[in-house]
Design brief:
Elements: H1 2-40, H2 42-78, H3 87-95
Length: 96
């Protein structure tokens, strides 16, 4: 059972890793879209900014939310605990 959970966790981590990388890249592309709109100007720039803000950005937000869920599931299945101190490290640091 533990091996199956580890395999599922690894698959979720893989999906999370590549997905977040793609979403971050897509989020960075919005910067270039806004820069292009700034250079073009006029009604075309307004249309570009409106499309980026109302169509593209919500897709990025929804995708990142779903991918974070994959990350949390992978941590849960692997038994990892983030942002919690390890008792061994606390003891070692206390002895110094």
């Amino acid at each position: 059972m533990k091996n199956a959970l580890k395999k599922i966790s690894n698959v979720c981590k893989l999906i999370f890793g590549y997905g977040i990388m793609i979403v971050l890249f897509a989020g960075g592309l919005t910067f270039f879209g806004y820069c292009a709109a700034l250079i073009i100007g006029g009604e075309t720039a307004e249309a570009m900014c409106t499309w980026i803000y109302k169509t593209f950005v919500p897709i990025i937000v929804y995708a990142s939310t779903i991918l974070i869920l994959f990350g949390l599931v992978s941590m849960y299945l692997a038994g990892e605990k983030a942002l919690t101190p390890d008792k061994k490290k606390i003891k070692e640091e206390g002895e110094k």
